[in-house]
Design goal:
The complex is a heterodimer of chains A (250) and B (423). Chain A is mainly α. Chain A contains 7 helices and 4 strands. A two-stranded antiparallel sheet of chain A has the order 1-2. A two-stranded antiparallel sheet of chain A has the order 3-4. In chain A, α2 (43-55) crosses α6 (198-213) and α5 (142-150) packs antiparallel against α6. In chain B, α6 (125-147) packs antiparallel against α12 and α13 runs antiparallel to α14. The chains are: A mainly alpha (250), B mainly alpha (423).
Chain lengths: 250, 423
């Protein structure tokens, strides 16, 4: 029985291959502030991105690995973070032992929109919106791919049969996605006056999500530059010592 | 009757200890004055690099284990907690995850170096076989380590690989249930994999210890593959090879650091950032790059049991190559035909790596089968035959002569080829 399952599994890999080899949308090439060995997060874009997450994405998508205090990393002050956290209530156990609610603290994880998977599926036509904490790491193509999905909606090509409640997306594998187009031009009003085009919104929210997935990226690269410089020097010195030590042999 | 060690160390404390427990004498004999062939190239760095990689994997692993929870419902989140909450947890995890790739990288270079220069031949058969044991242990350890983050690829990789044992007739399914600790990959599997992933590196360490003892009994092979004949052929290990290994170590750390700090997810599969879901199979299940050639061999055989046997056989065959190789000459430098075939083997192995990463369709299937066939042909057929038929180039008289006069190559008027003397 189990052998059959495995065979079926391996068989699926073999047989399903041609069917799955769909022509996927071309990955857009966005010039991200965080790419390259010296890249950093564009704070303004990440803050605008947080606004989009808060006003749009967070209606369905959780960000459960992140903490409210992480928002300090995109340039918000401690007081601002405290206020953002306090605007959310999270479940707790009261002193009387009964379930109660309290305002969230900066040390709390982001509150998820649904208490559990079943609640999410019940509310969303059976679909489960993925958690976005590491979404740019969890997809081939990373930030470019997420940007591509957010900007990849459109009319299905003539003759393409769409599933019930599905939406056409040129980036998404299979081109049928359950999520309706989440971002529209001018969906949000930016406080800093930036024009909220679809491209701008997608760019901003992806910058924010990339930050959430890699909150230590800037520190990592900063240390990395020092480590590489140090090791490069050490390599040079060690090689010079090696030449000196070996000079009586050659 | 046992006696005290006559220690030459001047420092009274060192001398006192060394008289009773001659560790200092041992270290001095095995690592300081240890006579080492003078003609090593930088490929002889890789054994030292591998042992450093092992130690760093153990150290980073111990700290990761302090913060990791091997429970199906908590493992994925605990890894993310390491990345976000633990001080320099991201550094520990990226060093460890990329360290696995770095460890395999240097070990593979180490193995191919041994194959090229005939380091497996008499009298180093046991040394070589211990190395193959280390490779097998490393693969088991790496596989179980990859399961621990409990992402999609962790879960489904564990499912596919453990299921391989079901190919064995009669006992297969019982073995799989026994491995899982249940009727599917689940919590008990994760717990035992964590336990074994913590245990096996120390077993590896013990076998490495034996590997090094065996090395210090036979002495190292060298690029010419000829035996050390006189003290002129050797140099004391320290300072000559401590400094040469240090150069390689610096470069190794440079490469490792590049991945840790700038491309930490280069070797990672995006699917493993999706929490394990037993109800949803990823579109493709691929192992880490260092296991791809074996995965390709597995899939190149159209029969499941056959594939499993060939996959295990591809490593087991390495145990017997000291006896499959009939050539009296060690180094491929003096074996023109064998040298060419060595590179065909390298190309086949790399091709198998690419085959393993692609869906088995079209030309990939053909390439996989051709490369698999060559892999076994190389060891089982060509190795005994070419060893007998090939006419090796003349071997140099000694290690010291070509090194002094020409910096590597054999002397023009070198001694004619003769079988290496057997003790």
């Amino acid at each position: 029985m189990r052998a059959a399952t495995t065979l079926a599994l391996l068989g699926t890999l073999l047989a399903a291959a041609p069917a799955l080899a769909q022509e996927e949308g071309k990955l857009p090439h966005v010039n991200w502030s965080f790419s390259g060995p010296f890249g950093t997060y564009d704070r303004a874009a990440a803050q605008r991105g947080f606004q989009i997450y808060k006003e749009v994405c967070s209606n369905c998508h959780s960000l459960k690995e992140a903490y409210y205090r992480d928002l300090e990393g995109i340039g918000l002050s401690a007081a601002q973070v405290k206020a953002i956290a306090a605007s959310v209530t999270v479940p707790t156990i009261g002193d009387d032992g009964q379930p109660a609610e309290r305002p969230a603290l900066p040390s709390d994880h982001f509150k998820s929109p649904f208490p559990n998977e079943k609640a999410a599926r019940a509310a969303l036509n059976g679909a489960l919106p993925p958690d976005l904490s590491v979404i740019t790491l969890a997809r081939e193509g990373g930030a470019d791919y997420v940007y591509g999905v957010l900007t990849g909606y459109g009319e299905p090509p003539a003759g393409m049969k769409m599933g019930e409640g599905m939406n056409y997306n040129k980036m998404f594998p299979g081109h049928q996605i359950a999520m309706p187009q989440p971002l529209q031009p001018d969906q949000v009003t930016y406080a800093d006056g930036t024009k909220a085009t679809l491209d701008q919104e997608a760019h901003d929210v992806v910058t924010f999500l990339e930050y959430v997935a890699n909150p230590h990226m800037e520190e990592r690269k900063r240390i990395g530059v020092k480590v590489i410089l140090f090791l490069a020097m050490l390599t040079g010195i060690t090689y010079a010592v090696k030449r000196k030590v070996w000079s009586d042999v050659h | 009757m046992a006696g005290l060690n006559k220690s030459d160390f001047k420092n009274p404390v060192v001398n006192w200890i060394d008289t009773r427990l001659p560790l200092f004498t041992l270290m001095n004999k095995e690592y300081a004055v240890f006579p080492t062939p003078r003609n090593f190239n930088y490929l002889w760095n890789f054994g030292a690099l591998a042992s450093v990689a092992l130690v760093l994997m153990i150290v980073t692993g111990i700290f990761l284990a302090m913060n990791y929870t091997p429970d199906g419902s908590m493992a994925f989140d605990s890894v993310e907690r390491i990345m976000r909450d633990v001080n320099y947890g991201w550094l520990l995890r990226y060093a460890h995850a990329n360290g696995a790739s770095m460890f395999f990288l240097v070990v593979y270079v180490h193995i191919f170096r041994g194959l090229y220069y005939g380091s497996y031949k008499t009298p180093r058969e046991l040394l070589w076989m211990l190395g193959v044991v280390i490779l097998l242990l490393m693969m088991a350890t790496a596989f179980m380590g990859y399961v621990l983050p409990w992402g999609q690829m962790s879960f489904w990789g564990a499912t596919v690989i453990t299921n391989l044992f079901s190919a064995f007739p009669v006992v297969g399914n019982a073995i799989v249930t026994w491995l899982w600790g249940g009727f599917a990959v689940g919590d008990p599997t994760l717990h035992r994999f964590f336990s074994l992933h913590y245990l096996l590196p120390f077993v590896i360490f013990a076998v490495v210890f034996l590997h090094v003892i065996a090395l210090h009994i036979t002495g190292s092979n060298n690029p010419l593959g000829i035996d050390v004949k006189s003290p002129q052929d050797t140099l004391p290990f320290h300072p000559y090879y401590t400094i040469k290994d240090s150069v390689g170590l610096c470069v190794f750390f440079l490469v490792w650091s590049f991945f840790i700090f700038f491309e930490p997810n280069f070797f990672a599969n995006p699917d493993n950032y999706i929490p394990a879901n037993p109800l949803q199979t990823p579109s493709e299940i691929v192992p880490e790059w260092y296991l791809l050639p074996f995965y390709a061999i597995l899939r190149s055989v159209p029969n499941k049991l056959g594939g499993v046997l060939m996959m295990f056989g591809s490593i087991l065959v390495l145990f017997v190559i000291p006896w499959l190789d009939t050539s009296p000459v060690r180094s491929a430098k003096f074996r023109p035909i064998w040298r060419a075939l060595f590179w065909v083997l390298v190309a086949s192995t790399i091709a198998l790596g690419f085959v393993g990463a692609h869906r088995p369709e079209g030309w990939w299937v053909v390439l996989g089968r051709v490369a698999t066939t060559y892999y076994f042909l190389h060891f089982l057929v060509l190795m005994p035959i070419v060893g007998k038929l090939e006419r090796p180039l003349p071997l140099p008289e000694s290690i010291s002569r070509p090194v002094i006069s020409r910096g590597g190559g054999p002397l023009p008027g070198g001694a004619p080829a003769k079988p290496m003397e057997k003790p």
